[in-house]
Amino acid sequence: MRELIRANDPVLLSVASSLMKDAGIHFMVADQSMSVLEGSLGMLSKRFLVEEERGDEARRILIDAGLEAELRP
């Protein structure tokens, strides 16, 4: 899996998820349960991961959707 986004914004993660679903790209949002451990302070970011072999395609989709500033290098 390749990390494309690290964020706490549920709307951003929802939009990215929807774009990947529409493109048929497998993804997962890691570290969603970490808020239980940290006390819901929002200090630990969630990681948006896509399948490695379609990582470049997923990155292009997110850029085309105007989310370039949210992408990890």
From TrEMBL:
It holds the Pfam family DUF2007. InterPro entries: DUF2007, N-reg_PII-like_a/b. Residues 1-65 form the DUF2007 domain. This is DUF2007 domain-containing protein. It comes from Rhizobium soli.
